[in-house]
Amino acid sequence: MENTAREAQMPNDSEILRRLASRVAQLEGCITQALAAADRFHEIADRMERRAGGLPPRYLNMRDAANYCGLCLRTIEGAVAKGEITSFMRGRRLVLRESLESWVEGKVAAITHAPH
């Protein structure tokens, strides 16, 4: 009797295959998103590198920092609030350009070297 009840609770082969296919589809979606994010950060890093040829100032206000790396202001504000980007107040908040560049490069490295 116990074996019959246990067998009834075990999924059959088609159920196992269905679950496996569902999980594979989820993983494919995650990989696609990670690759898209990595491409976006590479674009940002390339844009920053091209702009650096014009020797931008050492310190940028928050809006200029966002424009410099092609991200939205809220993204930069969030990273500054978390202490991920070095900043200080001089009448208004200024961001150290080298810190901003390092932060973007770190994001690119984290995405491109993350296990898939």
From TrEMBL:
Highest taxon of source: Bacteria
Protein name per Swiss-Prot or TrEMBL: Helix-turn-helix domain-containing protein
Domain Helix-turn-helix per the UniProt entry, residue ranges: 59-106
